[in-house]
Write a structure and sequence with these properties.
The protein has 408 residues and is an alpha/beta fold. The protein is built from twelve helices and nine strands. The chain is elongated.
Amino acid sequence: MSISSRLRTKEELLEFIGEQSAFRGRVAGSEEERNCQAALAGRLDRLGLEASVEGAVVPPLSQHILFVHGLTGLFACILTLLKPLLALLLGAVATLSFWGELRGRPRLLRGVLMNRLSGNMIARLRNDRARAALVLVAHADVASSSLHFRPLVKRFTIRREQPGRTLHPGSLVLVAGVVQVVVAAHLWSSPEGSTLAMVGLLGAALVQGALLALAVDWWRSPPVEGAIDNASGLAVAWGVAKALVDEPLKNTELWLLATGDREPDCGGMRSFLHQSAYMFDPGSTFFVNIDDVGRGDLHYAIAEGRWHKSAYRATLPGLAERLAQRPEFSDVRETTLVGTTDAGIATSRGFRAITLTSLVDGHRPGLLHTHDDCLEAVEPETVEKAQRFALELARQVDRFVGAEDEAL
């Protein structure tokens, strides 16, 4: 690619990021989220793709889920002094439910809340000769700001993207829940509580109260602009689609998915796979998730997870590793991600998937989920490199599919 072409690409990608960032407050289920997805659908439709925005049923807000757990835990602490047996049972349910929220199941208390409606933008570039599908994924919603995303609070959490176990700050809530249950059991068997038991109960109540306050703060905090998280990912996906319209893939049909409700639990991707997985064969479908590629150094993930790292199927990481050996991508590195992405949800359903993201010194950029995540914070070189890498990865997938067909 010539220098002039790369400059034009940077300008187009920044223009797109600015357009998407102008949809302020595009949290899951909002009108601005739909407008953002509709604007992308319009761009893709003009390119020749078939694009539409479809509804998606997604879980309750995380802020509401935390509120219910904090309120239940705090009530159980107070009830321990009056009805220890009832407090023991209530505290055990709340603690088990919070454990389930962190680990995936059982999620008990969220059952008292209603699901919400969000949406997914789905576009398709038809290819009647295709034997496989490539789905470019980027989430369209943004996160809300909150006190617990500020630098001072982040010091108490482990944010480094690295292999192995990491300590989730919610573990403190689990400890408080266990302490409350133990104290309730102690008071039930021996009504005369010890000083140590009272101190433990007070500490548990403070933790549950802090969780309650955090939920309220998160709920009341305004959304961020989200230029990096994730207008940058949408821009790269659009840029790749634009290039592949001009030079189509031979063996692979291109899809583009702009998920809603990615923050924080991938509700849009879960809904998409629940509604549309029957259209895709896990053996011949590739998901490339593009997430937060606006600042730092480009990385490709090989696994993700909070406690136990779940590895992606080897095909896409292998192709990405091969690409990273080229001189133009020599600074692209592999990583493992803390938490869950849309690629992880696809992997759990048996699909080949990978996430492309950018890190700053091995960390997620510190300005994510803050109001510093704006257009001025975007590094054009990072976005442009992500677009070139994703485009070459798409072509590698197409060659891989073609080679498989020849082998058969």
